[in-house]
Specification:
Elements (H helix, E strand, L loop, with lengths): L2 E5 L2 E3 L5 E8 L6 E8 L6 E6 L6 E3 L7 E6 L4 E6 L8 E9 L16 E2 L3 E5 L2
Parallel strand pairs: 2-11
Antiparallel strand pairs: 1-3, 3-8, 4-5, 4-9, 5-6, 7-8, 9-10, 9-11
Length: about 130
Amino acid sequence: QLQLVESGGGLVQPGGSLRLSCVASGDTLNWYAIGWFRQVPGKEREGVSCISSNGVTTKYLESVEGRFTISRDNAKNTVYLQMNSLKPEDTGVYYCAADHLPAPYGSVYLTENEYERWGQGTQVTVSS
């Protein structure tokens, strides 16, 4: 079964950048749309970005659009989230998640309950 492992989080100053990676094992990512979600204690998890299985369609949380870029390299079984111009409110635990063959083909949804497999999360802290 598919397993996901996030990495790349850390402490960064406001305005800085981080690149998160989500590496899959146990199955090819070709069959999965991938989403990135983040969570702060006491708040609900929110969708940050997602990408369709073929990489054609992407979606972003309005507050990160223009600053974050999601991409995938299916040959490496990896999805990335490039985060630029980071703000303190971007702080949280970032999770990647996989949605097996959402219908119709090529679709992707930034809705938590669409996703079946989740990584363990990686902490992102934006602070001066």
